[in-house]
Amino acid sequence: MSEPLRRTPLHALHAELGARFTPFAxxxxxxxxxxxxxxxxxxxxxxxxxxxxxxxxxVRVTGxxxxxALERALPVDFADWPVGKQRYTLLLNERGGIEDDLMASRxxxxxxxxxxxxxxxxxxxxxxxxxxxxxxEPLERALIALxxxxxxxxxxGLAPEVAELAFMSAATVPIAGAECVVSRSGYxxxxxxxxxxxxxxAERLARALLAARExxxxxxxxRDTLRLEAGLPLYGNDIDDTTTPYEAGLAxxxxxxxxxxxxxxxxxxxxxxxxxxxxxxxxxxxxxKSVARHEFRVFLDGRQVDMVRSGTVTPTVNAAIGTAYLxxxxxxxxxxxxxxxxxxxxxxAVVKMPFVPHRxxx
Length: 362
Description:
The protein is α+β, with helices and mostly antiparallel strands.
């Protein structure tokens, strides 16, 4: 018998707002609201969207030799990582494959991690084995993302100090009577924030944000189309334990020359020396009504080379787009490929990612 779906602290509010729910990573999550995915997507690009991402795993890391131990588990370098900065990083295996991608914030006496919902138990178990002297405490907190060009104005109306946060910075900030950890980051390519808030305060904070005329609730459907347009990878689709940072275009994360060795370092050193055999690319379909979905077969010169990793029609690009891995020599804009869509091979062309430019505040 399957376990019942879990619910986030904002579930009752979603139902009140008319959400359509879907199972996702063991949770019952809102996929869209009354106005639909397209309207939610475009509103996030023009104003501000509120996302419930409380299904994600939040972990507090503490203990002796905290930074040195994490350096051996993650390809990060704390030597140039000041307090209050956030990093996008990876949990790797010995082959250099990506076990998960995560956000790490360095606070005064701890590090906060945000990990993917589907891998949070696995991640904590792996980190505990890699860093046996550290404490990894899963937190039962809500996580709210406020994304869009008007996100700063909205949140600063409740907590003026958030306007001073730089991109990929984090701080403890009181908002609407709750002690929150706020980072200037997100998963849309827009400016915005992610707000970790005690579960009992989540609905009050969400209602305070939704009281602003420029804020509307946004579900998982638009979260996916927004991140795809922004060229941001989805774990389990674009990256997984068989793909490496160099193949996925995430070389900027890896610090091969940092002082501490880390899991997967030797494999990545070899790959950097020998060169990758494939790269993740973006593509656009030649026929707008032909949508390339996840796991559709991808052909190059008549030979199957991969499957579609992510694919859909997105509102800002207003076209069918997607991602796939191609041989290195073919992974350049203009390369012609074919996607098998229900038995018919339809043409597509490799294009530069991201599909829309990022508008994060530097």
